[in-house]
């Protein structure tokens, strides 16, 4: 027979999966749940810990337990997928909002990331990505102007990759990726619907053409509850 904490766990997961508890709903307090289920605090905490471990809730010290959105979007780790291609695959309403577009002189950091000199110019493109009316991705793209001579608002709000491949005829070949979890910045909080999250998943991309020229550096900053980073691996 299931332990009491497993019975509570199963009841709450069922309510989350069936939509009775919507994402961001605050669960009852430990004291309220103790009375509702007529169990000890230890039993309630075991159930809550299991819910958190399995990705159903987020416990926030001093605030309580909040339901997570269990319907995450799959984001491929391998391969190069544009946001437009990703949103078409997901099949949900999406939108891109251009926040910044300017041609800049690279600072020391960008010179190192893009392997350019101070004499080179770099396109800086800051875009907010919305899926289902939630602002959940902040894309910070930097393009070497040597390979991308022109960008405008229309291109940036549609698909830069379509423009690069179909209009400029660039052959985008491969990328080196780095994924980290970082503390959300004030910029993240300003542009994204962070809600109660204070961490962000950062995917850095160094993107190369088929002639091995590095032409783009990107920081793609994702709200942590909305994405599941997936890959396929085969043991050789």
TrEMBL record:
CDD domains to which the protein is assigned, alphabetical: WHTH_GntR (cd07377)
Keywords: DNA-binding, Repressor, Transcription, Transcription regulation
GO molecular function terms noted in the UniProt entry: DNA binding; DNA-binding transcription factor activity
Any one GO BP annotation for this protein: negative regulation of DNA-templated transcription
InterPro entries: Bact_HTH_transcr_reg (IPR050679), Chorismate_lyase_/UTRA_dom_sf (IPR028978), TreR (IPR012770), Tscrpt_reg_HTH_GntR (IPR000524), UTRA (IPR011663), WH-like_DNA-bd_sf (IPR036388), WH_DNA-bd_sf (IPR036390)
Domain HTH gntR-type: 2-70
Pfam families linked to this entry: GntR, UTRA
This protein's name: Trehalose operon repressor
Organism of origin: Clostridium polyendosporum
């Amino acid at each position: 027979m299931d332990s009491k904490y497993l019975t509570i766990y199963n009841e709450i997961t069922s309510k989350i999966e069936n939509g009775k508890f919507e994402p961001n709903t605050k669960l009852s307090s430990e004291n309220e749940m103790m009375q509702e289920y007529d169990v000890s605090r230890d039993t309630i905490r075991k159930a809550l810990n299991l819910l958190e471990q399995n990705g159903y809730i987020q416990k926030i010290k001093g605030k309580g337990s909040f339901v997570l959105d269990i319907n995450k979007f799959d984001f491929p780790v391998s391969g190069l997928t544009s946001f437009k291609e990703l949103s078409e695959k997901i099949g949900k309403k999406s939108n891109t909002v251009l926040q910044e577009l300017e041609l800049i002189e690279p600072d020391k950091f960008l010179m190192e990331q893009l392997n350019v000199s101070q004499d080179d110019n770099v396109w800086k493109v800051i875009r907010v990505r919305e899926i289902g009316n939630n602002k959940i991705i902040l894309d910070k793209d930097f393009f070497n102007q040597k390979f991308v001579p022109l960008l405008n608002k229309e291109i940036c709000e549609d698909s830069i990759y379509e423009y690069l491949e179909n209009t400029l005829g660039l052959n985008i070949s491969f990328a080196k990726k780095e994924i980290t979890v970082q503390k959300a910045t004030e910029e993240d909080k300003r542009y994204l619907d962070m809600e109660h999250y204070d961490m962000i998943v950062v995917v850095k991309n160094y993107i190369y053409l088929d002639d091995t020229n590095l032409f783009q550096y990107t920081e793609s900053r994702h709200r942590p509850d909305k994405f599941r980073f997936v890959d396929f691996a085969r043991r050789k």
